[in-house]
Write the structure tokens for this entry.
Amino acid sequence: MGLTTYKMLINGKWVSGSTGETFSRVNPANPREVLGKFQKGNKEDVDRAVDAAQDAFENWRLTPPPARGKILLKFSYLLEQEKEKLARTMTAEMGKVLKETRGDVQEAIDAAEYMAGEGRRLFGRTTTSELRNKFAMTVREPLGVVAAITPWNFPIAIPAWKITAALVCGNTVVMKPSSDTPICATRFMELLEMAGAPKGVVNMVTGPGGTVGSRLASHKKVRAVSFTGHRDTGAEIMKSAGVGKRVGMEMGSKNVTIVMDDADLKLALDGVIWGAFGTTGQRCTASSRVVVHKKVRQKFERMLVERSKKIAVGDGLEKKTEMGPLVNEAAREKVKSYVEIGKKEGARLVSGGSAPKRDGWFYRPTIFTDAESDMRICQEEIFGPVLSVIEAKDFEDAVDISNGVDYGLSSSIYTNRVQDTMRAIRDLQFGITYINSPTIGAEVHLPFGGSKSSGNGWKEVGWTGVQFFSEEKSVFVDYSGKLQKAQIDTDEKG
Ligand code: NDP
């Protein structure tokens, strides 16, 4: 069978890019397997897609939100029907194990269901007025054409977070997916079309981030950019977007799990192993640091090392596999280089630290101990299966170490003491705090996003997704029949 050439979606048509150039993607578990050819879009393609989205906006904006929601509900059913196929495609395309890729699709189903219901809410507020015979309320309005620039690690879930929220609010969308997961992006768009998204309402341009993503972010007709990816890319996008555009940033992190001396260590072990090595450590919420109370540090470390050595590394499509490959060669090189940095910094390598001898971008689950909070391996995002164990004297020390990074997406603590639980909720400077569970595992009806360099204040999904993708307009209806001046004509006697 020949290699499939995939197209881009512009104005309801699957089209080639204007240059006709293509790029390819391989299976990270078996880089000799080429998965397809994809359009290498450029600025002109972005312009065409944005124009199509602009043309489609007027009618979509006026489509009643419950009708927009119905399309999203149908989309959720289609995702459900296609779940297994999509999961297998995703594992072959970006490497994570089947159980996780099924979870990725499930998250998209959940997001679509939530946003379908939002079509019957999109609440504004009614409130009081300072003046007699005057009514005040807010209504939600769409922004216009919005851009979704997405990463490869959740190639169905993250587009769903962004695009279902954007659509129910009445925006039209241009998506620029990661060049590592263009097949998932294509399937995602096909299902949205099948669900009834009218032409031009959703568009997709594939191609290099520096060209396609950058043009999209800087485009004058784009009213908002929702980005998930690396912090450096986020900084570029901020520059490209300039002023007057809403920009939502979900970026990297250096997440942490605290294990206190009274913790259920078996439970903590399951949580730290899953948090550190799930998705091969390539989740924005992955815990790459575990801060352990000094009284249980040695014991917990032994448990961690023993368990990490048993993790079955392999092709995510095989049933016995627990951890798949890294997404590409550059990602594995980055992991290798951080392992060398860790050794040079004086941390002690106690598990992994090498790649198995086989094809594919695999790397063994790796653990450093005797790590210090200011080491680079404890400060910088590695985005791979590398965990650092840091010892803490007491609760305060554990919180200080946890907060001592530039990032702030996800944190967790294992303890049974209510005092430490409540203080952790209050003191950990992260967008998410879990108690007695790992740092990973978002739910689509709660805000998702980080503080410090992990984000820029906007959050995704749930009601915060609606807030990002809509404008809350204040409306005043004066039925007094005379000119009333706020702050001036407020004399009650009058
Ligand atoms: P990247 O930042 O490399 O890429 C993300 C997207 O941005 C891709 O579509 C990419 O395109 C595009 N892009 C690249 N350069 C530019 C540019 N100059 N202008 C506009 N767009 C551009 O991230 P990864 O895909 O490698 O994802 C991993 C990162 O994402 C990690 O740092 C991780 O922490 C973060 N992440 C954060 C999450 C969160 O919610 N906080 C969730 C998931 C991941 P192309 O692929 O063509 O380069």
Notes: Residues 149-154, 176-180, 208-210, 213-214, 217, 228-230, 233, 236-237, 250-253, 284, 381, 383, 409, 450, 454 surround NDP (CB under 6 Å). The chain has a mean pLDDT of 97.
